[in-house]
Design goal:
Length: about 625
DNA sequence: AGTAAAACCTAA
DNA sequence: TAAGTTAGGTTTTACT
């Protein structure tokens, strides 16, 4: 069967091979079996006749733990692993093929644990049928996924724009793209790129400003002004590049006039484009123009699937452009230049400050406006403005006007844009807010949440659902009593064990190898337990581990009360519902409801009658 | 009991 | 060519 499959591959002669986790599992497994069975021709999978496909397992011992990865050579064919694509392009709580297919396409397969495969094969027609269906589905779903997310189209575009092979887009980072573009532009301009020796890394340099938020619940419309592609546009406007930098000792070497040199807010010198146009600005112009095209197509597209594809393309190009800046600040990278990255962020800090001041000075009673505009928050390249307008139209009009006026203060292509109005707007903290997002005056586009629990993957879905529902009730329905009643009912349900366990599953990523952790973590402890129970399915670095917190003696730390949700179901283990109330639900609820409902919230939510009936449990773990 | 540090994830 | 960047909130563990 294996030989026939390999022959099938050779006859079909595909450019691209896909599957789910093929690089880490399927190919190594198949090649291993073929070797064990002494199959002569199986490993001839590539397009070069005499090159045999082998698995190279590379283990690098670094100061910061082990780095393990497998490399499989299949000449002339791209290994386009959908597991890698999905992890890169979608932010999900779980990346099992089953969950991914379900979330993205609404399709599921029956899971068959590997331990029963032999039994199914040795059973009867029915069990073999079950196995066959499972295998077919396993092969079919990755293809359907590829067809659905259309990542190949975007990746081919990205490969063309940045000049890297397709496979690099899956197996490598942003740096290769920047280097490839630099090489391309350097060659045609007649430069060599120096080889950079890795030196000692200094401290992080200073980044962007986050304005102190004036927290609270705003019933007035809040206009948002935002510099488009801030860092790339700074680099283009001021011609920041390796090739335009004047080191302090070079400033006087070239007989340059004052008007031919830019001094950045961080005190670095660069020549203007009139003297010599930088490479980085050229690269950025190309990336931004590709992004602009993608955005234009997105605007005209009506099909929701294609919209998502184009949005993905636009986003990937934006990250690549921002990574050109990031590359210059990457001290463990191929060509760091902190003069560039430090100048970029310094310009950014100056710009957000100036923007805030201009808005507040110009849109004031003193200048003839109805009220004093107030910048209530801003992050890096945006300001949230309370023009104190009572309606959307006025807020939008003032926002557009301000964006246009302030843009004129900056060099092209720097541009401040009016993006949207939040109405109402709940500002909880830096990087934490929610609001109804309006781009037009008739209906809100969506409820937008930043940083709060509804967009985070490290809490249980009960918290997500409750916070989401509360926000809807408050921001959309404006029903404060209904919100309180809903929260009380939910807490009562939780305490009486009426919440489904699937809503209580928390997932966290395994970010280090065991042994590199200095503090015990619930999901890490569970991962170790799972590895013991089922070594064949041991969680690996980068996997997300789902867990629930079960009952234990008082003061038992969470990492000792952690258990596999399936194990809990199978063994009827009691869940620690008060953990979910006290450690998962209560604080997020107070943060959301506090600004809207006032100080009374805590007593209403956490100490009302609805908290009195609790289901008693008997079995316990821990001390 | 109070606080520093670790860990995670997100905004930009 | 191994690895874009910094800022920041929140929860949990470890330590005093
Ligand atoms: N992954 C990211 C995102 C952002 N930034 C930096 C560079 C950006 O210029 C700035 C502002 O980020 P935004 O998310 O607001 O995005 P842009 O301004 O780049 O693009 P847009 O045109 O969508 O506003 O923050 C970054 O370095 N890396």
């Amino acid at each position: 069967m294996l030989e026939a499959w390999a022959e099938f591959v050779r006859q079909l002669d595909p450019d691209i091979l896909t599957g789910y986790n093929i690089n880490n599992f399927d190919f190594p497994y198949l090649l291993d079996r073929a070797k064990y069975l002494k199959l002569k021709n199986f490993a001839r999978l590539g397009r070069i006749k005499d090159i045999i496909t082998v698995v190279k397992e590379i283990i690098q011992q670094t100061k910061f733990g082990k780095r393990k990865f497998k490399n499989i050579n299949i000449e002339g064919r791209v290994q386009y692993d959908m597991h890698v694509v999905i992890k890169r392009d979608f932010k999900l709580r779980s990346y099992t093929l089953n969950n991914v297919s379900n979330e993205i396409m609404g399709e599921q397969k029956e899971d068959v644990h590997y331990s029963i495969i032999t039994d199914l094969q040795n059973g009867d027609d029915q069990t073999r049928r079950r196995l066959a269906v499972y295998c077919l589905k396993d092969a079919e779903l990755p293809l359907k996924l590829l067809d659905h997310v259309k990542s190949l189209t975007n990746d081919i575009e990205m490969a063309r724009v940045t000049g890297v092979p397709l496979s690099s887009l899956l197996n490598k980072g942003e740096q290769v793209k920047v280097v490839a573009q630099l090489l391309r532009h350097a060659q045609s301009a007649g430069y060599f790129i120096p080889v950079h020796e890795y030196g000692p890394t200094t401290d992080q340099y200073e980044g962007a400003t986050v304005l102190e938020p004036k927290t609270g619940y705003y019933k007035d419309p809040i206009a948002t002004l935002d510099f488009s592609s801030l860092y790339p546009s700074i680099m283009i406007a001021h011609n920041l590049c390796y090739t335009t930098l004047l080191k302090p000792n070079e400033v006087n070497n070239f007989n340059l006039g004052k008007d031919e040199i830019t001094i950045t807010p961080s005190g670095n010198h660069f020549v203007k484009a009139s003297v010599r146009k930088g490479l980085l600005p050229q690269i950025l112009e190309q990336l931004l123009s590709a992004r602009k095209k993608a955005k234009a197509m997105l605007k005209d597209e009506t099909d929701s699937v294609y919209k998502a594809v184009l949005n993905g393309r636009q986003l990937a190009l934006k990250i690549s452009a921002n990574s050109v800046y990031g590359f210059t600040g990457a001290q463990v990278g191929k060509l760091p230049c902190l003069e560039i990255s430090g100048s970029v962020t310094a310009y950014g800090r100056e710009m957000i400050e100036l923007t805030r001041n201009l808005v507040e000075q110009e849109y004031s009673i003193e200048k003839g406006y109805a009220s004093n505009a107030e910048v209530i928050y801003g992050d890096t390249d945006s300001v949230m403005v309370n023009f104190k307008a009572k309606d959307l139209e006025t807020s939008m009009k003032l926002g557009k006007e301000a964006a246009e006026a302030i843009s004129k203060k900056f060099i092209s292509p720097i541009k401040l844009e009016f993006e949207k109005v939040y109405w109402p707007y709940l500002l909880i903290n830096k990087k934490r807010y929610a609001g109804l997002y309006y781009t037009g005056t008739d209906k809100y586009d969506k409820m937008d949440c930043k940083g709060i629990e509804t967009v985070r993957r490290d809490n249980c879905t009960l918290v997500v659902d409750v916070i989401n529902t509360c926000l809807r009730k408050l921001l959309i329905e404006k029903d404060e009593n209904g919100t309180v009643a809903y929260v009380q009912q939910t807490i009562s349900d939780l305490l009486q064990n009426n919440v489904d366990i699937s809503q209580l599953v928390i997932t966290k990523e395994l970010t280090k190898n065991d042994g590199d952790y200095t503090a015990k973590q619930a999901h890490v402890e569970l991962a170790k337990k799972l590895a013991k129970r089922d070594p064949g399915n041991a969680p690996k670095l980068g996997d997300r581990i789902p867990y629930v917190i079960i009952c234990g003696a008082k003061n038992t730390p969470a990492f000792q009360k952690v258990e596999d949700p399936i194990y809990v179901l199978e063994n009827n283990i009691p869940i620690d519902v008060s953990y979910y109330l006290e450690n998962q639900l209560s604080k997020p609820l107070l943060r959301i409801l506090g600004p809207v409902l006032g100080d009374k919230v805590e007593s209403i939510i956490l100490r009302g009658e609805h908290t009195l009936t609790r289901t008693k449990v008997t079995s316990k773990v821990g001390a």
